[in-house]
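G., the chain you wanted modeled:
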Amino acid sequence: MTEFTVFCLLGSLAFNVIGIQHKFFPSKKYKWWIGVMFPSAHTSVETWREANSFIAFPSFVAGCLFLIISFLPEIFPELKFLNFRTAGFLILMTSIVLIFITDRHLKRNFDEHGNRKY
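Predicted structure as C-alpha cells:
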C-alpha cells in the first residue's frame, strides 16, 4: 500500500464523515464554530443551515471519489507521480472546490442580507 493510497483513504474518510455528519446529524442550534465557516454562510441562521445541509452531498461524493482513486497506484504501479504530495494537493483542491460550490449555491438562493430570493 503506497503513501498516496493511505492519504487518499484518509481524505475519503474525512469527506465521508463530514458528509454523513451534516446530512444525518445536523446541529440543532446555530453555532459559529461548527459547520461551514465562510462569511456568506454566517449572514443568517437560515443561510448557515442551508450551507450545512447543502455541503453534505458534495462532501460524500468527494469522499467516494477519493476512495476510488486511492487504489490507482495499486492498479497502475508505473505512475510514479502519485505520492503524498499529489494526494495532499488533491485534498486541498477538493476542499476549495467544495467551498466555491457551496458559496455559489448560497449566492444563488440568498441576497447579501441573508434573505431568501424568491
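Residues 12 and 65 are 8 Å apart (CA to CA).

Shout if anything looks off.
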